[in-house]
Amino acid sequence: MLVILAGVRRVPALAVLxxxxxxxxxxxxxxxxxxxxxxxxxxxxxxxxDDPIVYPGRPHRSHDHTFVGNVSTNAFSTVASLRKAxxxxxxxxxxxxxxxPTLYVDGTPRAPDAATIYYRRLTTAxxxxxxxxxxxxxxxxxxxxxxxSAVTYWGCAxxxxxxxxxxxxxxxxxxxxxxxxxxxxxxxASLQLEVAFPDxxxxxxxxxxxxKSHMAYSSGGRCPAGHPVPVPALTLVYTYPPGIDxxxxxxxxxxxxxGHADFINTWNQRDLDALVRECLNSGRQCSVGAVSSSAx
Length: 296
Fold this sequence. Notes:
- This protein has a seven-stranded mixed sheet, with helices on both faces. The chain has a five-stranded antiparallel sheet with strand order 2-3-4-17-8, with no helix packed on it.
- Helix content is 10%, strand content 30%.
- It has one domain.
- It is globular and about 45 Å long.
- By secondary structure, it is mostly beta strands.
């Protein structure tokens, strides 16, 4: 069952692009914003208690998730089915599936205004594109205490005015401004959840028993020996509307500390290869819409 949240205001594609472009330069403390990157700007797609990685073929078995990117993602999704579907992202070639636990406020689900998907190169060696069908999970869905801020945290994005009207820009803040729990953002700021995926692959398997051990995080620009293949450092940022009461907010996976996210690579592989080659491995910082291999 796919559920479109009742009363949710869908953000027009142009507004999503402008929101993401405004926030693009700012990532959390220690996230190396100067690194080569490209961005996918994605709108909310749907909500469902499904998880095709953890509970494949078992609908309604998972806690509730909020999906962006591929518009067909459900418990029965396969690489083939996902590749046939459309996307809520600004890049037509980004038909990958992204999801995170649904945010509830006072018992009511809240959809993000938009999602920003960063693809960065954090290694000294060139990165390889994700192989088709790669699956991975970042963060701990069972966490009841703060997780490492290198993996997931919450923050606030300040509302700014521009030629196009109000835009949300992640404020340049010290590390203390980033919180393991949901912070009390001002009425002029949007709540953001950020989850960083590992950027080193074992080069052998597209998944693993715990959906994590085939991947690892780089350190000092290098991948560990057991995971020698550098891949893009994917970071998912969900931006929620201003005015959320943090005292009444929690994730469907439990509490405020259980931030996590899932990813299945079903990109148009030609598009992904071009972005990795011409942005990440060429040392460029490519904003939304830069480089499209579809016309090549």
